[in-house]
Amino acid sequence: MADFSFFLDDPEWLAHRFVESDDAFRFLRVPREDHAKLAFLTDECLGSRETSPEIPAAECLTQDDAAPVHFLFHSAFCGSTMLIRALSQSGIAMGLSEPQVLNDVVGFRRRGAELLAVARATDAATRLLGRPFAIGEVVIVKPSNIINPMARLLLGLRKDSKALFLHAPLETFLVSVANKGMHCRIWVRELLLGYLREGVLEGMGFMPDDFFRQSDLQIAAVGWLAQQRLFAQLGGEVGTRLASLDADLMMADPAQALDAVSTYYGLDLDIAAALAGPAFTRHSKSGLAYSSETRRADYERVRAAHDEEITMASAWARVVAERAGINLAAPNPLLNG
Description:
By secondary structure, the chain is α/β, with parallel strands linked by helices. The protein has helices at residues 32-35, 43-46, 57-60, 80-87, 100-110, 115-129, 151-157, 170-197, 216-238, 247-252, 254-265, 271-276, 292-305, 307-324, and strands spanning 13-19, 24-29, 55-56, 69-74, 93-97, 138-142, 163-167, 242-246.
């Protein structure tokens, strides 16, 4: 049954799914206060909610796109959920964490949709995600990192947008993969398979059969390198519209990092409030008390437990990077170590 309280220009109605068979979008009601409780805007996290009728994409494309919408791309396992929460302050900015609708657009593309159709669906999705909750407020979208191969398209569609690439350094990334166990080891293979299908690995010196002979952490390292190369190329194309931030530097000095990020996005962020809030004092996924000291202790424990595998995969990846001409430093860094 249609919900007659639905209004297309109401940002409380989150654009949740792109229904490609009907060329339409489906919305869920997600009040602003609920966003702070959700790690991701996915089916699993959102649960059962009030649902809109399907709205044709043509109607969604009439939405005004004048309000600022920026992007927070990430390498995974780098504190991106923490950062997007810290940037979310009423009247200043609204952060949207990994909206499912952008994953739907990726699936649409991977199933062979024509480029113009993908661009049209992405245009509609980003217009809908960019609806501000308050006048003068900026929307910052943190996509899942399966979206990264589409970063060029997103910035091409939203000409006034800026993007930040938040990335964990190679070894920190590998420690995180080792720490998260079998589920994560499977995930890095799934991520790389998607990147392989989208041509992201071309020119890196691998044949498809090579990946069967690589360990889980080698696979993880290849995915990390692919993202480094992708954003280095994009930075060369869009210049200062793309900046980067090292997650280790962010964790070492969160006040300096928040100041740099808020300046980059043009936000009048209350940094003291952001630092005192749950973003930097609670684990972004579990909600349990967490601190930089806890994170450092976890890192040292995992590093010691998987020392040989991490050391070998890291050294191997650096050779791959040198041969493929991949810079291990991301472009236009906001902070320097």
